[in-house]
Amino acid sequence: MVTGASSGIGRAIALELAAPGASLCLQGCANVAGICETADLVAQCGAATRIFMLDLSDPSACHTLVQGAFEAHGRVDGWIHVAGADVLTGSASMQPFVSKLERLWRVDVQGTILCTRLAGEKMRLQARCSQRIPTILTMGWDQAEAGMEGDSGQFFAATKGAVMAFTRSLAKSLGPDVRVNCIAPGWIQTLWGKSAPPHWDQRARGESMLGRWGTGEDIAKVAKFLLGPESQFLNGQIVAVNGGWKPAWPTT
Q1: Among 27, 38, 23, which residue's Cα sits nearest to residue 3?
Q2: pLDDT of residue 201
Q3: Phi, psi at residue 29, to the nearest 5°?
Q4: Phi, psi at residue 36, to the nearest 5°?
Q5: N or C terminus of the chain with fewer C-beta within 10 Å?
Q6: Shortest CA distance to 184 belongs to which of 154, 217, 143, 149?
Q7: What is the DSSP letter of 188?
Q8: Which helix (H) or strand (E) holds 166?
């Protein structure tokens, strides 16, 4: 299961996991064209897909998604929870702080917690009947613990910090039957990054030791590693994918 698969990081992860014989469930919310495009690209790689269009700010939708994913294939070996609210582009970017915070809390925090708790319990039962340890991945933020100035720094630190803290607790709750890790992306050039003003572009490049934006593919390759057998002794970890963060801003 890959949530938030309509575009960006979620789409990149779905494509990285797509292979002949693979079975992927893809969740989107409002971007029907986007999720259909992802499904077509995944199918071209030889993987079977099933689409779920649900708003994960609604607790009942979280139950529906988990139930549907397990009914679709009988088991779920990897749950990659990318779904998050976009409050930086489009009409949402013009909303007041409290509206952005509420949307992020309901989608990014509540949605992540409810879906992965429900999926985790089913995966725990599944693991006890097989030799394979299933895996859950969540999405945090590399600067959540250090903090960042401004409105976006405040609401992303609060919400993604909550996801990261929850991930550690869920890993302790589900171990040793299920592994739970969190990817903490740095400056990733998704939709907002591609149109970011020059000073934000400069900041993103300046705060990475590698001097560039990250890509969805950078995150996807780490996700694939964390789902695979090479990472079987990684659990309860926050894995920063940021090119090596350095406090290069402000410069004066």
Answers
A1: 27
A2: 85
A3: -120, -75
A4: -65, -40
A5: C
A6: 143
A7: B
A8: helix 150-174
Q: Is the pTM of this model over 0.85?
A: yes
Q: For residue 226, which of 166, 187, 183 has the smallest C-alpha distance?
A: 183
Per-residue DSSP letter, 29 = S
For residues 126 and 178, the answer to whether their CB atoms sit within 8 Å is: no
**Which class would CATH give 2-241?**
alpha beta
| 244's tokens | 């090596």
Indicate the pLDDT class of residue 70, thresholds 50, 70 and 90: very high
Q: Residue 133's beta-bridge partner residues?
A: none
First CA to last CA distance, the chain: 45
Strand partners, 23: 48
Burial of 137 (0-12, 13-18, 19+ CB in 10 A): buried
Beta bridge partners of 180: 136
Percent of the chain with pLDDT over 90: 77
For residues 152 and 25, give the distance between their C-alpha atoms in angstroms, rounded to a whole number. Answer: 31
Residue 107 token pair: 């989608």
Taking the mean position of all CA atoms in its chain, how far away is CA 19? 20
- Are 57 and 110 within 8 A, CB to CB? yes
| Position 251 confidence tier, pLDDT thresholds 50, 70, 90 | very low
pLDDT digits (tens, 9 = 90+) for 32-68: 999 999 999 999 999 999 999 999 999 999 999 999 9
